[in-house]
């Protein structure tokens, strides 16, 4: 495929109106990303009818919506890092090392670093999209139920890196996450599991409600407890920019995060949350020699941040090449194209180069805009740490309640969020890590559905799980991730 | 108690009025971007373009249980709201037939109208050896397990039902189908192209573009007559000797306590709307085929559908 469409695209994306649309999209995206429970999908759903009614041309609308999409991947990290309250689903892993950094007085540095990592992930994934889109489209087709299942096996194999000092607690956490995914409609048989005849439970527990409960609510409870005991620390803001040495140390993590995030983003069955989870656990497996991950290691922040932005870029591959959405958000954007009577698919690049090219070009421009927008604002965002608790705690709670209620319009979801919050608080008091719970939940559903579909196709023959080359490669990778560190450690101790 | 009072007051205030309700709202019982959203957008945009009402239709979302949450919400909390319509489809009727909408059956709401339809299709990948539904049917009958089916829903969903009536028609027990419940129509297309499933069950509008682009091959449309547009060259199942019809209508219902006058206002409005060229244009832009049933006609359609689906579900051993 020639790159002519891209030059057409840059000509479109660099028109001043479209630059403005891109900027507005990026800014709004950062905002919706930063607010808990409200993610890019909500921002896009709100803006789309507005843009259409106002008669905004199709390419400008796509540029606006794409800006919201990857802007949200930038914005989600702010509250993750500063408050340990993930702003959206892709930013959960960011909290694991980002928040400890903020607690050590390196909040501004963490924000700047995550902005840079997001930029690297975003830029490289658009480059990948530009150069390899048709090729990757074929890769996405190669993934059937069996392949997705083995991919999840691989993801769980990387999870063993989390086992670390307290294997039992990690496994209990993952089991809790897995158990929670079984609530709701059985995706294969159509039966309802653990729903107690309550229609609001038919879809199970929404990921975002789990995240808000587990992180936001339990965080508020912890802060209240600390305040009560008088052990609350006042946090320092720290200097604004990571040192060159830190950046150099994080480069590998960013690049690996980008690679993992992009590939997982391309696959229609997985998204930013799986991408950042797998890249974090892989990075921990590879680089965590001193046991600093989870205690404020910049690499543990850079990897998932690069990954979630790369996944957002990757999700455009199946949308543009196959006409199949790669994530919930691209599904809405696909709807936007249809609203303008534009049929997505490979012919889009030749028939409507101003749309396909404008979209891709706007991602290059948008990532630059976001970096420019984010670095100077770090000093502003980081002041959130200086907010006194009597503003901060009601603030977090209000946002959590509002976010959940405005999205799901149900009291039951608020109750579930609070119940999960209390459980999360207890788990944290008992020294549990919350990450395995999240991972079990994120990976569990994809794993179960695909295993059952694979076995439905093969009529129960397990052979299907080992048949294709993709499966075999993934099994080998999973084995490698499991065994290699053990061997390395043995060699290190024996020498 | 307060709810009843509010309902009673609402009825008292607007019960006799034939004027337009203060606020018009279309509730899409799903996330933005899906079929229910499309149904609401059709109403919103065509009313706006045809300029039949002065106030805009607000589209709101309430996801949960493929419409079950909204159904219970309307019956329980907003039964008398004169301005509220909720998007529904034949899929809703299928769930009601299988008692998956909670305690309520099809008589719990006031069915208003269907304004468009899509039709079921059966497709194979572009490189599949089967060129007609007849060939596919013979191969399927000879060895059902060699042809796994993919659909965008669980067992008992519309996609499963389409495959099941095909299986039954060629003499295969639906229970012996190898059926993969994939996540939506997009996943069915990729699974077909990747060869992970051999038969794809889906909707005409969704698959038409890829059929035209030569990426999948639609063997039959499950409609009474051939469909216009990209699928004009695809024969119906009936033409190929199998009496398979699957109409996916898209319509609306209202709360059970909406007054006759308000219901009549909507019926009248939609009758006017469906006669306008603006409506026809919007319907086509949403990828829907003409299918207009308003008021009593539609109520009859829903009841007949639910009865038929209940029968199908029993035969297939789902209930």
Can you walk through the features of this model?
- Chain A has 20 helices and two strands.
- Chain A has one domain.
- In chain A, α4 (58-83) runs antiparallel to α11 (298-314) and α4 runs parallel beside α15.
- The mean pLDDT of chain A is 86.
- With 495 residues, chain A is mostly helical.
- The longest helix of chain A has 51 residues, at 92-142.
- In chain B, α4 packs across α11 (296-315).
- Chains A and B meet through α3, α5, α13 and α18 of A and α2, α3, β6 and α7 of B.
Query: What is the overall number of helices of chain B?
Result: 11
User: Structural class per helix/strand content of chain A?
Assistant: mainly alpha
**DSSP helix fraction of chain B:** 40-55%
First and last CA, distance of chain A: 53 Å
Number of helices of chain A: 20
Molecular shape of chain A: globular
How much beta of chain A, percentage-wise? Answer: under 5%
Series of H and E elements of chain A: HHHHHHHEEHHHHHHHHHHHHH
Give the SSE layout.
The complex is a heterodimer of chains A (495) and B (319).
Chain A: H1 4-13, H2 16-34, H3 40-53, H4 58-83, H5 92-142, H6 145-159, H7 167-181, E1 184-185, E2 192-193, H8 207-229, H9 244-266, H10 272-287, H11 298-314, H12 316-322, H13 328-339, H14 348-351, H15 353-381, H16 389-408, H17 411-429, H18 435-458, H19 464-467, H20 469-494
Antiparallel strand pairs in A: 1-2
Helix pairs in contact in A: 1-15, 2-4, 2-15, 3-4, 3-13, 4-5, 4-11, 4-13, 4-15, 5-9, 5-11, 5-12, 5-15, 6-10, 6-18, 6-20, 7-18, 8-16, 8-17, 9-10, 9-11, 10-11, 16-17
Chain B: H1 2-14, E1 24-28, H2 35-50, E2 57-61, H3 68-76, E3 84-89, H4 90-97, E4 110-125, H5 133-142, E5 149-151, H6 158-169, E6 179-181, H7 184-193, E7 199-203, H8 204-212, E8 216-221, E9 247-254, H9 260-274, H10 277-285, E10 293-294, H11 296-315
Parallel strand pairs in B: 1-2, 1-3, 5-6, 5-7
Antiparallel strand pairs in B: 3-9, 4-7, 4-8, 4-9, 4-10
Helix pairs in contact in B: 2-10, 4-11
